[in-house]
Sequence to fold (267 residues):
Amino acid sequence: MIFWVFSSKVFDYLPIRKTRYSGNRSIMQHAFPPLKSACFLRKEMRYYTEIVLEKEEKTQALNTSLLNLPQIDILGTHLFVSEREKNFKIPYLVEMAEVDDGHMVVVNLQRALNFLITKLMQEDILDIHDLSMHKAAHLPPVICANDLKFDVITKKFQPHLLVIHPIVQCDSNKNAFFPQIRESWVFDHLIDAISYRRGGQRATLIFYALNTGIEAIVPNIQSQDDYSKILIEALKSGVELITAKIDVKNNSLLTLSFDNIFSQEGI
Fold:
């Protein structure tokens, strides 16, 4: 079931070119497959996690996330897992984790990204040509940084760079800082976006909040000043910015909203 609610506002402090999306807010829903409650035991390999199900059954789950979220790897962390097809050696897939203050983090990046991209296309927010989204429609189970940058074309066959940045950590004030650590791939993607704009082409940055506790995304001026300056320069150059946030209802339903939760604090 999909329903729409519209209302929002755009930034006033930067000369960001308005898109067809500007001023709209959408809320959309996606149902998880049946989930089982589990407890984290230990990480066996980079993507393999040993878990205990509710009936004290010890088994393995695939954790496909590249997200920097230390809370997931703590003994006893509450996880939600889905069953994979029978022919897979690892029988379960980690979908969500419960972190501080009972907030949920969507860990399955493949599902989260597919959800986001599907809704972007259905809503026609970015005027992207369907044929250029082949990569986005066939994301691998294990996501790497390069899977978060898409060289696409508009319906008028003009180049458009789409960069998605998942954000999962927030502080006690429910602020998420960008960037949280010095990640070179973030720097590279922002430079690419600036290059697109200076060449007269479109570029869009999407901050994707996957932690239900996040209420604001704030440039990390204090500890990552250089990276924050690049972000501000990207926005000044005309890179379009969209903030998307996931919420979880009844541990079974994902909702996706497009709200302006980007903060001007410190700029």
In short: The first strand starts at residue 27 and ends at 31.
